[in-house]
Fold these 4 entries.
Entry 1:
Amino acid sequence: MSIPSLEALRADFEEAGQGHVFRHWAELEPSQQRTLERQLRAVDLALVARHGALLQSSDAAAASNLAPPDFFPLNRSAEQEAQARQAAALGANLLAAGKIGFVLVAGGQGSRLGFDGPKGAFEIGPVTNKSLFAWHAARIQAASYRYGFDPLWFVMTSEANDDETRAFFEAQDYFGLSKQNLFFFTQDMLPALDANGRILLASKHELFLAPDGHGGTLAALSASGALEVMAEEGIEQLSYFQVDSPLTRPADPLFIGLHAEAGAQMSSKVVPKRDAHEKVGVLGLVDGKLGCIEYSDLTDDLRHARNEATGELLFNAGNIAAHMIRRDFIESLASGGALDLPWHIARKSIPSIDAAGAPTQVDGVKFETFVFDALARTRSSVVLEVERAQEFSPVKNAEGSDSPETARADLTRIGAELMAGHPDWNAADFTAIEIDPRVAETPEEFRTTAAHGRKVNGGIVFEPDQEGPVAG
Ligand code: UD1
């Protein structure tokens, strides 16, 4: 297929009612023209038209029939306990056999945090300032030592942070992982529109582009060739996780095992909500299909509704965005065109330019898909309840709840829990505690491996020593 000429490109945009993107063409430097042309060639005008039509249709979501999901609970019966033991053994075997690949989604912008850089570069270690990326790397590597496998890690970035993310990993020597086991892939960027469906310009020669949401992971895994690499390497299941919680456990044998045993296509971890107002999505059945109901989509009544028998919130299954996904499930979605996940609209004030080219703010719209909408396409899915205190402490806000301060406090608390009962260490002696996951993730491991601690400014840190980390 030959590349259409600039005239043809222009005609296509004119015809689509988007000719204004060429308004300043004659004023642009050649290099700016090239930038704009490159961006315009990447625009899917049919998709833009669909997005425009969405804006014209009513925003009010159709009333749905919502119900809480079944889940594998933290408070287990003896039978469930036995099932959990069996599943964890299966999960450990799958890890050891190299069947699990790790997928981190880190394409979003850390704007709420007020941090100018890839969110994963944010420093969160309570003693060493170890970054979020470094925590994730340490957990993956700890699992690779424990179960004995060579971990493959797929990191999704977006055009906005790809260069910086790669440079950060390189500068940190890939956190001790081998470079050839790391795969970076980028998600798509889409033009934001104004309220009338017109493409917004960020400047005379640039569109205002935004990442297409974490639902874009599935298409990007396919388009980047990552799924093929996984197939070649024998990876059958993906452990999907978000960048923002340093407590996340991407290599959890119980979760992997329950998901595999059920033959599930995609499974999810949840935590009980902190309270009715916690701004997490909840897993639930929407008209009988599993999905995630965002905080803003749950009416006040439903947010507060309680289960009569237990007194717990009825919609209590807080989504921590940790999923197990079968590789062939993504392949089948990608090949059948079913990757067409529903579009979610985010209305934002967007920095743009007016007709004269002067900077202005516009009430605009960004379009995203969400990975959890693929849950509706599963035939079988496991929902596993896990302990918030051990697995979920996201860094979302600059201060207050879910902030760097709360995440650091949680890492110190977990460090103190790991130290408890050790004859040589007393957590109360330190203002901050940081235990690298490669040293220990359980008190037993800490007792057998943590000989040396390094004291830093009233805090203490335990890091893997030269002799190597946790024994298998
Ligand atoms: C998300 C979930 C919410 C869940 C909460 C748990 C959505 C819409 N909601 O909320 O149900 O309870 O996490 O922490 O996701 N990302 C990309 N590309 C994008 C957009 C996001 O890679 O285009 C990544 C981010 O880097 C981040 C993750 O997805 O790792 C979550 O994105 P974010 O926008 O922070 O979601 P939340 O609103 O916190």
Note: The chain has three domains: 6-56, 66-396, 402-472.
Entry 2:
Amino acid sequence: MKIKVINPNTTASMTQKIAETAIAVASSGTEIIACNPEMGPVSIEGHYDEALSVIGILEEIKKGEAAGIDGYVIACFGDPGLLAARELAKGPVVGIAEAAMHAASFISTGFSIVTTLSRTRIIAQHLVANYGMTHFCRRIRAIDLPVLELEDENSNARKTIFNECRQALAEDGAGAIVLGCGGMADLSAQLSQDLGVPVIDGVSVAVKFVEALVSLGLNTSKKGDLAYPIAKPYTGMLHAFAFVNQMPSD
Ligand code: 5HY
């Protein structure tokens, strides 16, 4: 099977890190195609960045459909454009926030999320509610470092994340930690070992969930709101995004 892992920001080093994490957990027989859009924000740190990252994500889904991709991972903790991507895709599309939260709920009765900037906590909070995880999510914490600090080997991001996780375990009554950024994908194994609790990275979990869904033949339902978009003209600079209906819809 072919799984396309999309890093919605345009920072190639973060895409490479996400690719390595995905390839490390993929089953034999699973081909991982990791990419980031050609256009968009170098990092996603708020609603505006997120909104504008969606165009690039949908462009990558469109290319994936033409290339026979079986399933997709959206590797940004805001799960940007998830439902729009599902409208375009035949196969399953899984967001790393959704995947990580569900995995945490299988192995703990409470988890805390550790993300980057405080201003993005509200985005995670909305997803916690959307995904029915309010019962499990103990707290959403931020290390208040910009996303791209994670790309700087010399920054103290790792130490700061470790300290925030340790505090979460001491104060929040959490049994597991969910890492709140695709750029933290490479940290989960070491943090789990150092902290002695499950520290969950959504990229790894999302790849395994997509593998499971595809192997079960579970594709995105085309009945109702996730049916292919209704074909209509788009004007201005988005005219090329007008959906051309090649598939039957309900
Ligand atoms: C992410 N931003 O996963 C989010 C994390 C965040 O560029 N990749 C980003 O802080 O919202």
Note: Residues 9, 43-45, 76-78, 115-117, 120, 147, 181-183 surround 5HY (CB under 6 Å).
Entry 3:
Amino acid sequence: MSTTTEPTAFAGVGVSAGRVIGPVRRMPEPLAPPADGAPLPDGASAEAESERLTAATQAVAANLKERAAHATGDAAAVLKATALMAADRTLLKSATRLVASGTSAESAIWEAADAVATQLTALGGYMAERATDVLDVRARIVAELRGVPAPGIPDADEPFVLWAVDLAPADTATLDPTKVRALVTSDGGPQSHTAIIARALGLPAVVAATGTEALADGDLVFVDGIDGAIVRNPGSAEEQLAEAYANRAELPAFDGAGRLADGTEVPLLSNVGSGEDAVAAAAANAQGVGLLRTEFCFLGKDTEPDHEEQVAAYRAVFEQFPGRKVVVRTLDAGADKPLPFLTDDSEPNPALGVRGYRTDLATPGVLSRQLAAIADAAEATAADVWTMAPMISTPAEAERFAALCAEAGLKTPGVMVEVPSAAVLAPQLLQRVEFASIGTNDLTQYTMAADRQLGALAELNDPWQPAVLHLIRTTCDGGAAASGRPAPKPVGVCGEAAADPALAVVLVGLGVATLSMNRRALPAVAAILRTVDAATARRLADLALAAGSATEAKAAVRAELPDLDRFGL
Ligand code: PEP
Ligand code: MG
């Protein structure tokens, strides 16, 4: 805990709205693996070392069981599975055998767990997924043996502000939103896993928060996910802000009809990455799916999933939206989504490499087979299936993708606009396809030449950057110029920008027809859109376009939307 009581401010990038005060808990350092086959500690007997190992295993199992008893839902299931694994006799037996032959307890459990995890991985499917539990248990046992905090989200009785360098997907499986008040990371950007999970759970979050490495367990901090600020030892000003946030008006649930105050319709769709996601999106009244990330069917696989497997996966999503639009994005492998059988991991700059649609050049066939599976799944359901390719850069690519869709019998081909060249040539692209969907995560990365995964560049990697907004307008103008039947070719947004209610107003003002987002953002975006008419949205878009920086653009627009404060957004 810090010794001074003076407030100290730290600046970062606010990626999920909310203002709270709480004590800091630091994410423990990842464990360094023990040396391979390390011998028994000096003077220790094999019996004593075995007893130490058994005691550590029992302590870990008991702790996990206890936490499982107090958890609910997914968290309880994960904790129970891990507790069972910790109590598993086979694992302990093989580790004890290694100790008996003169290996230290740490190295023995490390090696024994490795062997179990390798066997599970080889079995594939559900069993392969259990390999992660074994490795988690192993880390907990080694931490217990070393007397250091277990890796993963800290366990605490009181709600706390979680500080970490950045969070990995596995860390967030047991993140309990009733315990964690806010997230602060020294690294990570607006599209980092931390940011995505924070928005999904509705937790205030600040990423790329420079200097926050100095925060210690127990420090009291104010976290402002709206303005991207952290204050250690908060004063009355921060207390008032946190109180105003705590007393915010409750957002009404989304009623399934996105529109502006004057009745202009703005369909609000959901981004979906699995069958379960689709069920949840439909339950949240999403008006369809604006981005189906099909990677869920491919990630973690060494080979291409076959036709039947793909059809079943897509069908599970389509069935949730009879009569509704489902926009399927074809496989987006490469860069932040590497796939062993498609991407070359020796590329010097993967974000500028063979990724997205471009993988069809290096490995032809995967895309056509995927389109055939999408067509068969579409045929079997009543969803209105549209198909789009990621990372399209030229009109020729758009034309070829449309031809591949036609060959597969898919009627509504489109492109994602993620590369500045596609935005600039939007009229030509949209003469060749039926719609465009702007992926603002990548469009921002490529417009600003700032890696979306780099926390140090988080300020540049902000969709409020006026240069990005200009390209969005250019794309919408391109859609208006390329007329389809019955009206202009629609341009939607499916990047994280659509989930920011203030930015959503700007996007509509720029000419965006539909917005697709994480289902949890639907109520906030719907509520704020209903406070403006089309003329106001256009005026706010012009304000943002005229700003000199992302910060200025955001501040100018937010100042004109008082309901953001009312709802604590
Ligand atoms: C985007 O780039 O905005 C997008 C929606 O795609 P992804 O984040 O999956 O790259
Ligand atoms: Mg993208």
Note: The first strand starts at residue 8 and ends at 11.
Entry 4:
Amino acid sequence: MTQASSDPTAPFPAPAIGIDVGGTKIASGVLIGGELRGRHVQPTPETGWPAVLDAIAAQVQGLQAQFPDAARVGVGVPGPLSLDRRRVKFAPNIYGFTDVPLVEGLEERLGLRVVLENDAKAAALAEAHLGAARGTGSSVYVTVSTGIGAGIVLGGRIWRGRHGIAGELGHVTVMPGGPVSGAGLDGALEAIASGTAIARDASYALNRDVSTAEAFTLAAGGHPAARRVVDQALRHIGVALSDLQKLLDPEVFVIGGGVASVGDAFFEGVQAAADEYAGPFAPVTIRRAQLGGDAGVIGAALAAGQEGA
Ligand code: ADP
């Protein structure tokens, strides 16, 4: 039941397998005509990258046994990729994932063409085609989670830029002299407004361990220091979106990720700051991600559909 479409950027030419490799789990499924089927999840091996590649290959083979028409494979990973998108430079949340020849390793194991994508970019593609930005010609997806990532989708395709770094919103400097990020630069957005940063700042302010979720709960209850930490983070995210609006003027921003799952308090804070800093320019349209945990798998399958053999 493949869905025909007259859209030249239609990403569903054939059933495609999507794999989303995370720090704790590997999720997979088959995208058929815009519908995700055969969902499968297993823990991510913690014994080095060859074991992760073996696990991915086993999931692909299991899905192919169920869906023999699925000959395209897309894999999303949480880390920067080489410019040719055949290697993962590093994925700090996956044990042993440094300079991994993922495409070569999987193509050897499977005898199939494999397309590699960054997980935030994959989610951006998914939300653009099948989620909250469906029907738009331009969108920016932002994930506010352990870190902050983003993907820019123009005309149904990911905008990568000259070096493939387009969308590295978490590494945009918003406070020179601020906290130093994992990339070694001070004042990056994710060092100030990610889930990790909120927990760090709330823990410092309250002089005990405070999780991101608890920081939001305390803030909602009116705790002054927790409120200050949360408000500052949301303000920085909103300001960053207003900056992107002036730079790219996309039709819509979509925000997902664990921190955004807080819901109303998160989105109201971000929208208020975005509106304030949009000033007399264009309004900033922000929507909640719709695909939740499926976004990475769907996006990886879409990437394979767009670029697969
Ligand atoms: P990942 O970063 O691995 O993609 P998530 O998208 O789940 O994972 O994001 C994890 C981050 O989201 C952590 O910083 C965590 O504390 C935060 N988080 C998860 N659930 C909530 C919640 N209900 N409220 C606030 N923060 C949350």
Note: The first strand starts at residue 16 and ends at 21.
